[in-house]
Amino acid sequence: MNLLLLLPEDLISPDHARLTGRRLRHVREVHRAVVGEDLTVGLLGGRMGRGRVLRVDDEGLELALSLDGEPPPKLPLTLLIAVPRPKVLNRVVAAAASLGAARIVLLNAWKVEKAYWASPLMKPENLREQLLLGLEQAKDTVLPELRLARLFRPFVEDELPGLLGGGTGLLAHPGTGGVAPKVLGAPITLAIGPEGGWIEAEARSLTEAGLRPLDLGPRILRTETALAALVGRLF
Q1: Spatial separation of the C-alpha atoms in residues 235 and 233, rounded to whole Å
Q2: Is this model's pTM higher than 0.85 or not?
Q3: Spatial separation of the C-alpha atoms in residues 97 and 160, rounded to whole Å
Q4: Domains and CATH numbers, the chain
Q5: Model confidence over 28-65: pLDDT tens digits?
C-alpha cells in the first residue's frame, strides 16, 4: 500500500479521519506507524497529501489531514477486457486501475466460460475492492469507470462506435502483424481478448466497429502481462 486511501465515511471532520479494518491492520503491521508519524494519504475522488498519526491502537487509526496535492491524471484509455478466469480477475482489475485507465469494460467472448460470470469475484463489491487496491498501489484517488458487458454483439455494434469517438481503436490479436502506434495524449480504446485470443468472428466484428489490429508477437501472454505490455507500448 503506497497510498492510504480514505473514504468519505472515514472523515470525522474535513481535516480529521478515523480508520479501522484492513487499512488499520496494514498501517500497524506493515508501516508500523507510531504517533507523530506522517503517512501518504488521499481522499477517494479528491486530493492527496499527508496524514499525521494522532492515535493508533487496536480500536482504530486517527489522522490529522493535510490534503494539498492532486492525483495523477488518468490515461485517455478505455480498456475492453474479455473476462479472465476468476483466479486472475482480481489481478487484472487492480492492474488496470493502477495503470491509470479511465474506463474499463469487462466484456463477454466466446472463450469466456459462463461460469466466470457467476463467480463471486464478479460481484460489484469485490470489483470495487480491486479497483481501490489498484489506486493504493499507484498513489491515485480517482476510480476508473467500470462496467460489465455480458452481450458481445450488442455492445460491439451499438455501443463501441460511440466509445471510440474521434480516438484510436486497437484490437490486440495474435498473428495480425499490426504495430502499436505512438499516439500520446490521444484517446485510445484497446480490446484485449482471452488468453487464446478472440475467435475470428469476434475479431472481424471488432474491426468492423473501428478497431485496427495490433500484434504483440508469436507468444501467447496472460491477460495481465499483455495489459502491462500494451499500455507500456502505447503510453
Answers
A1: 6
A2: yes
A3: 21
A4: 4-69 (2.40.240.20), 75-234 (3.40.1280.10)
A5: 999 999 999 999 999 999 999 999 999 999 999 999 99
